[in-house]
Automatic annotation (TrEMBL):
Organism: Lentibacillus amyloliquefaciens
Entry keywords, A to Z: DNA-binding, Sigma factor, Transcription, Transcription regulation
Protein name: RNA polymerase sigma-70 region 2 domain-containing protein
Residue ranges of every copy of the RNA polymerase sigma-70 region domain listed in the record: 11-77
TM ranges: none
Gene3D superfamilies tied to this protein: 1.10.1740.10, Winged helix-like DNA-binding domain superfamily/Winged helix DNA-binding domain
PANTHER family: RNA POLYMERASE ECF-TYPE SIGMA FACTO (PTHR43133), RNA POLYMERASE SIGMA FACTOR HI_1459-RELATED (PTHR43133:SF8)
Amino acid sequence: MDNRISFEEIFEQNKRRIHYQIHKLNIHDPHEEFFQEGLVAMWRAYESYQPDKGPMATYFNYMIRNRMIDAIRKDTRKNEALEKIIHQRKTQLTDGNYHRKSDATNPLVDAQHLPMHDPNLWNNLKSQLTDKQWKWVHYRIILDMPYKEIAEAENVNVEAVKSWGKQVRKKFKDPEFRKAINLDNSL
Protein backbone atom coordinates (compact mmCIF):
# COMPACT_ATOMS: atom_id res chain seq x y z
CA MET A 1 0.00 0.00 0.00
CA ASP A 2 1.29 3.50 -0.94
CA ASN A 3 1.84 5.71 2.12
CA ARG A 4 2.35 8.85 0.06
CA ILE A 5 0.01 11.77 0.58
CA SER A 6 -2.11 12.61 -2.48
CA PHE A 7 -1.14 15.58 -4.61
CA GLU A 8 -4.47 17.27 -3.82
CA GLU A 9 -3.55 17.31 -0.13
CA ILE A 10 -0.01 18.46 -0.87
CA PHE A 11 -1.41 21.23 -3.08
CA GLU A 12 -3.83 22.46 -0.41
CA GLN A 13 -1.04 22.49 2.16
CA ASN A 14 1.50 24.22 -0.13
CA LYS A 15 -0.37 26.47 -2.60
CA ARG A 16 0.68 29.51 -0.54
CA ARG A 17 4.28 28.71 -1.56
CA ILE A 18 3.37 29.53 -5.16
CA HIS A 19 1.82 32.86 -4.15
CA TYR A 20 4.85 33.58 -1.97
CA GLN A 21 7.28 33.04 -4.87
CA ILE A 22 5.14 35.20 -7.19
CA HIS A 23 5.22 37.97 -4.60
CA LYS A 24 8.91 37.52 -3.82
CA LEU A 25 9.83 37.73 -7.53
CA ASN A 26 7.57 40.81 -7.86
CA ILE A 27 5.52 39.25 -10.65
CA HIS A 28 2.28 40.84 -11.80
CA ASP A 29 0.08 37.82 -12.59
CA PRO A 30 -3.44 38.99 -13.54
CA HIS A 31 -4.18 35.89 -15.64
CA GLU A 32 -2.54 33.50 -13.18
CA GLU A 33 -0.10 32.22 -15.79
CA PHE A 34 2.73 32.20 -13.26
CA PHE A 35 0.50 30.49 -10.71
CA GLN A 36 -0.03 27.73 -13.29
CA GLU A 37 3.75 27.51 -13.83
CA GLY A 38 4.15 27.17 -10.05
CA LEU A 39 1.49 24.47 -9.95
CA VAL A 40 3.27 22.49 -12.68
CA ALA A 41 6.56 22.91 -10.81
CA MET A 42 4.93 21.65 -7.61
CA TRP A 43 3.53 18.61 -9.43
CA ARG A 44 6.92 17.78 -10.91
CA ALA A 45 8.57 18.25 -7.53
CA TYR A 46 5.94 15.98 -5.96
CA GLU A 47 6.58 13.31 -8.59
CA SER A 48 10.37 13.45 -8.35
CA TYR A 49 10.81 14.09 -4.62
CA GLN A 50 13.26 11.80 -2.83
CA PRO A 51 12.89 11.99 0.99
CA ASP A 52 16.53 11.07 1.63
CA LYS A 53 17.69 14.19 -0.32
CA GLY A 54 16.15 16.79 2.02
CA PRO A 55 12.90 18.38 3.19
CA MET A 56 9.98 18.46 0.73
CA ALA A 57 9.24 22.14 1.49
CA THR A 58 12.75 23.21 0.46
CA TYR A 59 12.49 21.17 -2.72
CA PHE A 60 9.11 22.72 -3.56
CA ASN A 61 10.44 26.25 -3.03
CA TYR A 62 13.46 25.53 -5.23
CA MET A 63 11.43 23.99 -8.07
CA ILE A 64 8.69 26.64 -8.02
CA ARG A 65 11.12 29.57 -7.93
CA ASN A 66 13.31 28.21 -10.74
CA ARG A 67 10.34 27.41 -12.97
CA MET A 68 9.04 30.95 -12.55
CA ILE A 69 12.45 32.44 -13.29
CA ASP A 70 12.61 30.32 -16.46
CA ALA A 71 9.14 31.58 -17.45
CA ILE A 72 10.24 35.20 -16.88
CA ARG A 73 13.31 34.65 -19.07
CA LYS A 74 11.19 33.07 -21.80
CA ASP A 75 8.74 36.01 -21.73
CA THR A 76 11.64 38.48 -21.81
CA ARG A 77 13.18 36.81 -24.88
CA LYS A 78 9.80 36.78 -26.61
CA ASN A 79 9.21 40.47 -25.82
CA GLU A 80 12.70 41.43 -27.03
CA ALA A 81 12.13 39.61 -30.32
CA LEU A 82 8.76 41.32 -30.71
CA GLU A 83 10.27 44.75 -29.98
CA LYS A 84 12.97 44.11 -32.58
CA ILE A 85 10.35 43.23 -35.20
CA ILE A 86 8.30 46.31 -34.30
CA HIS A 87 11.38 48.52 -34.52
CA GLN A 88 12.30 47.11 -37.94
CA ARG A 89 8.74 47.65 -39.17
CA LYS A 90 8.68 51.24 -37.88
CA THR A 91 12.02 51.93 -39.52
CA GLN A 92 10.71 50.51 -42.76
CA LEU A 93 7.59 52.67 -42.58
CA THR A 94 9.35 55.91 -41.67
CA ASP A 95 12.60 55.93 -43.61
CA GLY A 96 11.13 58.40 -46.11
CA ASN A 97 11.50 56.19 -49.15
CA TYR A 98 8.13 54.41 -48.94
CA HIS A 99 4.53 55.15 -49.77
CA ARG A 100 1.52 53.49 -48.25
CA LYS A 101 -1.63 52.11 -49.77
CA SER A 102 -3.84 50.81 -46.96
CA ASP A 103 -1.54 48.67 -44.80
CA ALA A 104 0.90 47.66 -47.55
CA THR A 105 4.23 49.43 -47.81
CA ASN A 106 5.99 49.68 -51.14
CA PRO A 107 9.42 51.14 -51.75
CA LEU A 108 9.38 54.04 -54.17
CA VAL A 109 12.99 53.61 -55.13
CA ASP A 110 15.19 50.89 -53.70
CA ALA A 111 18.36 52.88 -53.10
CA GLN A 112 20.41 49.68 -52.94
CA HIS A 113 19.61 48.95 -56.59
CA LEU A 114 20.04 52.47 -57.91
CA PRO A 115 22.92 52.80 -60.32
CA MET A 116 24.81 55.23 -58.08
CA HIS A 117 27.51 55.83 -60.69
CA ASP A 118 25.17 56.52 -63.61
CA PRO A 119 25.58 60.26 -64.31
CA ASN A 120 22.80 60.20 -66.94
CA LEU A 121 20.22 59.07 -64.40
CA TRP A 122 21.28 61.70 -61.87
CA ASN A 123 21.38 64.47 -64.49
CA ASN A 124 17.92 63.49 -65.79
CA LEU A 125 16.60 63.41 -62.26
CA LYS A 126 18.16 66.75 -61.31
CA SER A 127 16.70 68.42 -64.40
CA GLN A 128 13.19 67.30 -63.40
CA LEU A 129 13.37 68.47 -59.76
CA THR A 130 13.43 71.82 -58.01
CA ASP A 131 16.58 72.81 -56.13
CA LYS A 132 15.06 71.83 -52.79
CA GLN A 133 13.81 68.49 -54.12
CA TRP A 134 17.25 67.77 -55.54
CA LYS A 135 18.83 68.64 -52.19
CA TRP A 136 16.53 66.07 -50.56
CA VAL A 137 17.54 63.40 -53.11
CA HIS A 138 21.21 64.25 -52.75
CA TYR A 139 21.28 64.29 -48.94
CA ARG A 140 18.69 61.60 -48.19
CA ILE A 141 19.11 59.05 -50.97
CA ILE A 142 22.67 59.51 -52.15
CA LEU A 143 24.37 60.46 -48.86
CA ASP A 144 21.83 58.66 -46.60
CA MET A 145 21.73 61.55 -44.13
CA PRO A 146 19.06 61.79 -41.40
CA TYR A 147 16.47 64.54 -41.67
CA LYS A 148 17.88 66.44 -38.71
CA GLU A 149 21.35 66.67 -40.27
CA ILE A 150 19.88 67.77 -43.61
CA ALA A 151 17.89 70.49 -41.84
CA GLU A 152 21.01 71.71 -40.05
CA ALA A 153 23.08 71.70 -43.25
CA GLU A 154 20.43 73.71 -45.12
CA ASN A 155 19.55 75.92 -42.12
CA VAL A 156 15.85 74.97 -42.21
CA ASN A 157 13.56 73.02 -39.90
CA VAL A 158 13.02 69.27 -40.18
CA GLU A 159 9.45 69.75 -41.42
CA ALA A 160 10.74 71.66 -44.45
CA VAL A 161 13.07 68.78 -45.33
CA LYS A 162 10.21 66.30 -44.94
CA SER A 163 8.10 68.46 -47.24
CA TRP A 164 10.80 68.30 -49.92
CA GLY A 165 10.79 64.53 -49.57
CA LYS A 166 7.00 64.33 -49.91
CA GLN A 167 7.19 66.28 -53.15
CA VAL A 168 9.89 63.96 -54.51
CA ARG A 169 8.00 60.83 -53.46
CA LYS A 170 4.88 62.17 -55.15
CA LYS A 171 6.85 62.60 -58.38
CA PHE A 172 8.34 59.09 -58.10
CA LYS A 173 4.81 57.65 -58.00
CA ASP A 174 3.99 59.20 -61.36
CA PRO A 175 4.77 56.74 -64.21
CA GLU A 176 5.31 59.63 -66.63
CA PHE A 177 7.94 61.14 -64.34
CA ARG A 178 9.69 57.79 -64.00
CA LYS A 179 9.67 57.48 -67.79
CA ALA A 180 10.98 61.04 -68.22
CA ILE A 181 14.02 60.37 -66.07
CA ASN A 182 14.42 56.86 -67.50
CA LEU A 183 14.32 55.39 -63.99
CA ASP A 184 12.64 52.07 -64.72
CA ASN A 185 15.14 51.29 -67.48
CA SER A 186 18.08 52.10 -65.21
CA LEU A 187 17.16 49.55 -62.55
